[in-house]
From TrEMBL:
Membrane topology annotation: Multi-pass membrane protein
Segments forming domain CstA N-terminal: 4-145, 162-283, 295-424
One GO process term, biological-process aspect: cellular response to starvation
Cellular component GO terms, alphabetical: plasma membrane
TM annotation in the entry: 6-26, 54-74, 80-99, 129-150, 156-178, 185-206, 226-242, 263-286, 358-380, 411-429, 449-467
Lineage: Bacteria, Fusobacteriati, Fusobacteriota, Fusobacteriia, Fusobacteriales
Entries under Pfam families matching the protein: CstA
Protein name (database record): Carbon starvation protein A
Keywords, comma-separated and alphabetical: Cell membrane, Membrane, Transmembrane, Transmembrane helix
Length: 481
């Protein structure tokens, strides 16, 4: 239990110390007019209260990510604590803050435009496609999973009916002004998600569940290696590329640049705390990782969340569990489609003021999304996981380039960029959805070693290219269109 408590303390201290360092390096200007003030349009550019933007950002980037991902990552035991803490402070929160603030400086531009601004036009075109595909995948994942759970609760209603209802809601939330639906209900759900996590955390401690301490042991029942699998399994609680698509939405709603650390960096730290709590609950509630593995085999993370919530919190926990596995995924799904709409609109410079224009962009996205709803969920999720972390890696490289081009300490972004490059490269080589098929007959340990070596080589190549193409000493004008 000591490791768990210390991990939470370290996350909080990280916000106040390292978050302040990152903020100081970027240098927010409290006197600068934000996009919400300069470009107010009553649709996407709407100034909102700081507490509200924090809760919306938290719910946008969280949903069930820090719950389901942490439950999956708990299969490796307390090593998950290490990845969540260090990943969150030094990678995820830095990633979210820098992308959010870079977007703020460029009129709330989407991550694809930010990548293009710093890594070149080819990278921008790639990122446009990559981010839209990822966002549609997120939207689809968060249609099918809550629809299936709702069907289990109300078996008289077919799953397809729930899919239809969720899609209709997504379309409405995607095109309406951000303060009409998202601005009103998201803060409430954000508070509920935090209350749910705190309740579970207090409950497992008070009720005496044995949370294992951090050791150098791999607790995975099947002996699956910690690296890079753990870094892919726990994304939202440590670092997630999906966040880079969400931060620009709130960049269009902040009233002051000084709010950035609390909204962007702070929301990621809050998500890390939620992930820590659920990882601890998952690895202790079932008496160890073998018991957790059996529970996951009976219906996945949703079943685990439901069992823990009902047992630890009783009837209140049951209600919160439904919120966690149904409402929260839906709140991530609709902002995914909204972000996809904004990304496409930015790419073609298509004004989103008129509601007709919003429907013109949104409807084709939903046609593709509906078609993908009929593909096996597990296949979608596997490709989403790798794509998500790859997008985060590219975003970090863009952030590092932005910092070096503005004569700022770029190591805060460069170091996690290098690490994540190793992660995503080695994973795609050894994963079932990657290139492992080319290593038939080769021992697993050897394949993993090859993957790690190739990952390091690719990271070195990227680092050399980064240094060679960076313009040191060049001070750019503030990023406003």
């Amino acid at each position: 239990m000591l490791s768990f408590v210390v991990s939470i303390i370290v996350l909080v201290v990280g916000y106040f110390i390292y978050g302040k360092i990152v903020e100081g390096i970027f240098g927010p200007d409290e006197n600068s007019l934000t996009p919400a003030k300069r470009l107010e349009d009553g649709v996407d550019y709407v100034e909102m209260d700081e507490k509200k933007t924090f809760l919306i950002q938290f719910l946008n980037i969280a949903g069930t990510g820090p719950i389901f991902g942490a439950v999956a990552g708990a299969m490796w035991g307390p090593a998950a604590f290490i990845w969540i803490v260090f990943g969150c402070i030094f990678a995820g929160a830095v990633h979210d803050y820098l992308i959010g603030m870079m977007s703020l400086r460029k009129d709330g531009a989407s991550v694809a435009e930010l990548v293009g601004e710093n890594l070149g036009d080819k990278a921008k075109q790639l990122m446009r496609v990559f981010s839209v595909v990822l966002l549609i995948l997120v939207g689809v994942v968060f249609v099918t999973s809550p629809a299936a759970i709702l069907h289990d609760l109300v078996k008289s209603v077919p799953t397809i009916a729930f899919v239809g209802l969720i899609i209709i809601y997504y379309l409405i939330a995607t095109v309406l002004p951000i303060d009409k639906v998202i601005g009103k209900i998201y803060p409430i759900f954000g508070i509920c998600l935090l209350i749910m996590a705190v309740g579970i955390g207090v409950g497992i401690i008070v009720q005496g569940y044995q949370i294992p301490e951090i050791t150098f042991q791999n607790y995975h029942p099947k002996g699956v290696s910690i690296f890079p699998y753990l870094c892919i399994s726990i994304a939202c609680g440590a670092i997630s590329g999906f966040h880079a698509t969400q931060s620009p939405m709130m960049a269009r709603c902040l009233g002051n640049e000084k709010q950035g650390r609390r909204v962007f960096y702070g929301a990621m730290i809050a998500e890390g705390i939620v992930a820590l709590i659920w990882a601890a609950a998952a690895m202790s509630f079932f008496g160890g990782t073998e018991g957790l593995g059996e529970a996951l085999g009976q219906g996945g993370a949703a079943v685990v969340v439901n069992k823990i919530s009902n047992s630890v919190l009783g009837k209140v926990g049951g209600a919160l569990a439904i919120l966690g596995v149904v409402a929260c995924p839906i709140t991530s799904g609709d902002t995914a489609f909204r972000s996809a709409r904004l990304t496409i609109a930015d790419a073609i410079n298509y004004k989103q003021g008129p509601i007709v224009n919003r429907f013109i962009v949104a409807i084709p996205l939903f046609v593709v999304g509906v078609a993908l709803c009929f593909i096996d969920f597990n296949i979608l999720w596997r490709y989403f996981s790798w794509s998500n972390q790859t997008l985060a890696t590219i975003a970090l490289w863009a952030a590092a380039k932005y910092l070096i081009n503005h004569d700022k300490n770029y190591y805060i972004a460069l170091i996690p960029s290098i690490f994540m490059t190793v992660v995503v490269t080695s994973y795609i080589i050894i994963a079932p959805e990657g290139f492992v098929r080319f290593f038939k007959g080769v021992p697993t340990d050897t394949v993993e070693l090859i993957g790690t070596v190739v990952g390091i080589i690719v990271a070195l190549i990227c680092t050399i290219a980064f240094i060679k193409t960076s313009k040191k000493g060049v001070k750019y004008a503030p990023m406003h269109s």
